[in-house]
Amino acid sequence: MDEFWYGSTALLGGVANVIMQLSHAPVAYGVLESTVDSGKVTLHPLKRLRTTLTYLSVAMMGTQAEIATYREAVNTSHRTVRSGSDSPVKYNAFDPKLQLWVAACLYYGIVDLHERLHGGLDEATLDALYAKSVNLGTSLQMRPEMWPADRAAFQAYWDAELAEKKIDARTKAYFDGLIDLTMTPPPVRILFGWFHRFVVTGLLPEHLRDEMGMTWSPMKEHTLRLLLLVIGKVQSKTPKAARMFPMNYYLWDFRKRVRSGRPLV
């Protein structure tokens, strides 16, 4: 199974996928109230990018032993992420139901972005990708049997869960900061913030666009569709190592860190 969809274009859908994940209030407040400053994208965006893409690369391209190694490293950070007496919602980073939702968002994003860039996948490839994607949850604390049995079961789970998601004012403000790249230097924010908001808006499911108060139109959809098809055409003509970057780099970096005993997260 060719794995080119895990490459550089994954960066296009990153923030849209974060919004999907954090549209589940317990996941959102686990992030908003976290006391682990070293993992906050608003304070350390490059480090957060590394840990997130390492998680994805290990889950989808690593061995089961490597997945277990990274799971334990992530667990170290997650042990303190739990709601307090003043939290508006209850959460625990070890809750497997929350991790199922996170894994589902990631799987949805991989397939959706691939279809926008390169067209649909055949049934056999979709089934193989779906089976592989259980690792997105088991790389955390999700039990394998919690992953919906097949793609039809996943679609039923996705539709039911997505329809219930709400975004409150505090979470929306956090999302707006991510979308507008407020954690980056002013030149980056000025040059790319508007484009990033356009792409993020277009990649969100309609229900979450409505929750965010975003506007979209058939003309914007057409523009985004053409843009992504062009990007996909260019990507398909590049060597596989280039298509896979930066996921292949972060898998290499993970393995190097394991050998040298350096921190993984």
What does this structure look like?
With 265 residues, this protein is mainly alpha-helical. It contains 14 helices and no strands. Helix 1 packs across helix 10 and helix 3 packs across helix 14. The model has no long low-confidence stretch (mean pLDDT 91).
Query: Helicity level, as a percent range?
Result: 55-70%
| Low-pLDDT regions | none
Distance between the termini: 29 Å
Structural class: mainly alpha
Along the chain, the helix and strand elements come as HHHHHHHHHHHHHH
Number of helical stretches of at least 4 residues: 14
Helix and strand topology:
Elements: H1 14-22, H2 25-32, H3 45-61, H4 64-78, H5 96-118, H6 123-132, H7 135-138, H8 151-163, H9 169-179, H10 186-203, H11 206-212, H12 218-236, H13 240-244, H14 247-260
Helix pairs in contact: 1-5, 1-9, 1-10, 3-14, 5-12
Summarize the structure.
The chain has helices spanning about 15-20, 25-30, 45-60, 65-80, 95-120, 125-130, 135-140, 150-165, 170-180, 185-205, 205-210, 220-235, 240-245, 245-260. By secondary structure, the chain is an all-alpha fold. It is globular, with a radius of gyration of 18 Å.
